[in-house]
């Protein structure tokens, strides 16, 4: 079963609080979820990245998600590979970074917050 990599700030959390509709959508899937962020320990409270319902992964900007090494280190930490995860993210550069190493990724527009389109991406890619 694929693991869902969930972008943290401006996606899973908005203005320092969990985006409840997105959380509700994610809870309809039995898959493991990992919230991924660049935030360091000092930044995490500002973005509402404390006491989350899912595990949080960060490298504290060393490197950021725009560097594919971020995802390679994530794979090592969780014993995963690109074909075992899917990812959605509000930063187009982080999406491109993930795609560059074979991660099926979705650009989630944090202004539109189109959960219908996100659900379609999840449905189409979780069983493939």
Write the layout of secondary structure elements.
Elements: E1 3-7, E2 13-14, E3 17-18, H1 20-26, E4 33-37, E5 55-58, H2 69-78, E6 85-89, H3 92-99, E7 104-107, H4 115-126
Overview in brief:
The protein is built from four helices and seven strands; from the N terminus they run βββαββαβαβα. It has 128 residues and is an alpha/beta fold.
Identify the notable features of this structure and list them briefly.
128 residues, alpha/beta, Rossmann fold, 4 helices
- CATH architecture, by name, is 3-Layer(aba) Sandwich
The CATH class is identified as Alpha Beta
Task: Give the amount of beta strand, in percent.
Answer: 15-25%
Q: Count the helices. How many?
A: 4
Task: Give the strand order of the largest sheet, numbering strands 1, 2, ... along the chain.
Answer: 5-4-1-6-7
What structural class results from the helix and strand content? alpha/beta
Distance between the termini: 10 Å
Average pLDDT taken over every residue: 97
Helix content: 25-40%
């Amino acid at each position: 079963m694929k693991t869902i990599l969930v972008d943290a700030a401006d996606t899973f959390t908005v203005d320092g609080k969990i985006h409840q509709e997105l959380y509700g959508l994610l809870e309809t899937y039995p898959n493991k979820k990992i919230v991924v962020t660049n935030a360091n320990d000092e930044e995490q409270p500002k973005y509402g990245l404390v006491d989350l319902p899912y595990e949080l992964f960060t490298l504290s900007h060393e490197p950021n998600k725009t560097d594919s090494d971020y995802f390679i280190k994530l794979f090592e930490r969780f014993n995963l590979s690109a074909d075992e995860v899917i990812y959605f993210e509000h930063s187009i550069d982080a999406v491109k970074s993930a795609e560059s190493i074979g991660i099926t990724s979705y650009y989630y527009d944090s202004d539109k917050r189109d959960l219908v389109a996100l659900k379609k991406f999840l449905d189409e890619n979780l069983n493939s």
